[in-house]
Amino acid sequence: MMRIFRKKQKPNPMQDLLNLAIEDLEDKWISFTKSVTYKNGASLSENIDFFVRPLVEFFKKRYMTLYQFSESIFWYCVSNAIIRAKTHPKYEVNLAIRELDDRYN
């Protein structure tokens, strides 16, 4: 099929903001993993919990538009940032996020 007849996609500012938030958190996660020494036996969920505590306020201020929709968007960004950073396998990240969700909800 010729590309001439293909519809142009409209820019999506919310998707762009979401991607920017994930990139920002990815950079912070990488810095965190390089600078923090984990205690022996700490699970990934405990490390993520330690990581996100100060980030909630940062995220609320910087990405208020996203945070207003739902707190789950914050967790979506955190999990995707860690997955993109490739410091842990996707299934481990998903399991850790699920553990935190069960703990706090």
- Total strand count, please? 0
**What is the rounded distance between the termini?**
49 Å
Main sheet record = none
Please bin the fraction of helical residues.
Answer: over 70%
Low-confidence stretches: none
Number of helical regions? 6
Q: Rg from C-alpha positions?
A: 16 Å
Structural class by SSE content:
mainly alpha
State the main characteristics.
105 residues, 6 helices, 72% helix
How would you describe this structure to a colleague?
The protein is mostly helical and 105 residues long. The protein has one domain (13-34, 42-104). Helices cover 72% and strands 0% of the residues. The protein is built from six helices and no strands. α1 packs across α5, α2 crosses α6 and α5 packs antiparallel against α6. The protein starts with 12 loop residues before the first helix and ends with a helix.
Break the fold down into its secondary structure elements and pairings:
Layout: H1 13-35, H2 44-52, H3 55-62, H4 64-69, H5 71-85, H6 90-104
What is this structure, in a nutshell?
By secondary structure, this protein is mainly α. The chain has helices spanning 13-35, 44-52, 55-62, 64-69, 71-85, 90-104. The chain has one domain.
